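Our collaborator T.R. sent over the components below with a one-line note: 'Predict the complex.' Nothing else. No constraints on interfaces, no templates requested, no preferences about which chain binds where. So this is a plain run: every listed entity goes in together, and whatever single assembly comes back becomes the starting point for the next discussion.
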Amino acid sequence: MGKLECNGLTKVYEDQRKALENVTFTVDTNGIFGLIGRNGAGKTTLIRILATELQPTAGSASINGLDVITQDSKLREKIAIVPQEARTIRWMTSKQTVSSYLLWRGYRYNDAKRLADESLAKLGLEQYANVLTSRLSGGTKRKVLLATVTASEADVIFLDEPTTGLDPISRRELWEILRALGKERFIFLTTHYLEEAEQLADKIGILKDGKLISFGTLSELRKTARYQYSIKLPPKVQVPQLKDGEVTTDKSGVTQIMTNEDEAFSLARAFADQGVKFSITPVSLDDIFFYLVGQKARDE
Amino acid sequence: MNAVYEMINYPIVLLSAVIAPFSILIVITFVSHGTLFGTAIEGGLIMTFFSSGISLQSDLSHLKNDFKLQDMIVSSPTSAGLYMGGMTLAEIVYSIPSLAILIALAGIYLQHSLLQIAILSIALLLIFAISVALGFMLSTFSNDVVQSYAFSRLISLLFTTLPPVYYPITYVPAVYRYIAYLSPTTYVAEIMQSATGYLKISVSNLIFDWVILSAVCAIVLFIAYKKTRWKDI
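Returned assembly:
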């Protein structure tokens, strides 16, 4: 099994803006890896370095044993990327979009056409094969872009914010496709939708101001959070004094208590005895993210 | 295939590709009562080749900034040279209708010898190489499509419409000829017009034209090779 390894990756742009600082992690190149962070956290910089588009200032990285700097030519045969804000070329049909990308990658014309058909069919896009991409919906255009890169031989696919701007239904449709793709190839995706990473990623990294502040599976990330459980209460419910925990109330009056396991179950028993309606769940990626990134006002 | 797909899906692209060189050719021919028809055809060829090359700047900038195609290509086995070569072919494909008509007109009315055709071809190839290298290099720096298209049109105008490309330089007042010689297309036009008998220049001047054109080509190719920003730094 291959690995993606980053070792002390640092990027300082020409304007002296530091985008990445000493990012180090290793992840197996199977399944889906989700990189989350706020806008400007360094997600795109990291994905562009790994996709051999951008030179790091310091540090090294390799994918399946191929160095992203010194062996970029070899590596490029194994990777493909859908960049952030990538769009389909509007004067081409879906099939032409996929096949022209394959021609660029060096495929023969007949192979490119056949693989384009197969890739579009795999993503359920047969009916759009001969439709100009300018006439497709936003969600379908993204699927065409996915079909484009997955039609190639690349076994590592980088997706930079693939679902940004899509409606919830299109987003979920794309998730289904990504889940299936993740079983065949390694998908490295960046997102600022925490639910997306939670739903899709086998491992998650959290970037903040260019630094990797957390890395692991969701359950490993939960352990790094100060509190493991979240209790939500409807408005106007009296919250008892906590031994250990944090209480926040959003604009609609819903109160969230984040606390440890013992206190959470003790509170749950007390609320149940009082007949108070409540929900109790392990902390979500949202909770972990806001805890780690220091954003408490998530409902603002 | 980019160009072929676009022309198949939007046939109007074909028409617009033909209009520019022919509009000037027709004007020059009518104004000169037909005497400059030959040089106008040669001017049309220069404009078509130069504009095709320089169009890389705006077209690639469009593909790079609006569609992120360059990013997708960088992260693929395709090299910068191959991408430039492929896109150059696409630009030639766009120009095939104009070139076909111009070459047909030249074949019917001018009837050049093989030697003349060889000289014209080499001169056109050099100016095409200059414009391709310039267009590709500029596209890799561009991050604004609107400015890119405006810049592309401006360069095309400065190098193919204002200089004496459609007519001999002898029609330009002497004081302005020095300005005309700032454009490499002037040298191409002189070479082509002298090879086909529309302009009489000395052998030394002709050699000078070839030297300048070759030197400009070598310098632009060198700068493009060194300065093209394929992978970001």
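Summary for T.R.: The mean pLDDT of chain B is 88.
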